[in-house]
Amino acid sequence: MVRSHDQKSLRDAGAAQMTWTEPRTIRAHLENALAWGTENWSGDLLPPESNGVYVVTLRPWRGAPTGSAKPRYVGKADAKDPRLRVRIGELLIDLAGYQGSLNWHHQGGHSLCLHCEAHDINPLYLWLAWEIDCPCPACEENRLYDELGGGEREGGPLVNAKRPERCTQPEHPE
Length: 174
Ligand SMILES: [Zn+2]
Fold this sequence. Notes:
Elements: H1 7-12, E1 19-20, E2 24-25, H2 26-33, E3 52-57, E4 71-77, H3 84-95, H4 107-119, E5 127-132, H5 137-147
Antiparallel strand pairs: 1-5, 2-5, 3-4, 3-5
Helix pairs in contact: 3-4
The structure holds zinc ion.
């Protein structure tokens, strides 16, 4: 059985030690991305081309996201598909409604688009951040999903259509 990291090191890398980027509005993310090629652009503000976990909230927060940030979506890019930048890009496409009625790319973006419409929320002022140095995105996504109260099926605030798939690494904690 191959283990990418042992259980102790995973436990040691607890939530308090993980590093979240500072949450920024969708508007701020887009303004930076669209400033590509100018002095106003910062590559550090783009999602990395790596694995990771990300969260969309209605309110800004410090340190790590909690329920008081009014979380609405939790997602990940894992080792099987370590394209955090592409996944967040797909989220933004569908958040903007740039999809056919049957051809959405990203369930979270699609659901957030509908949620914003239903609740008269301006999507530009949703807050987005991602977590770097995350030892196992699948475990972290599950932990965060529970900590933030879960989706509609669990009576929680997230628009995730279903609970994230459990981590398949046998030594990892639930
Ligand atoms: Zn795991």
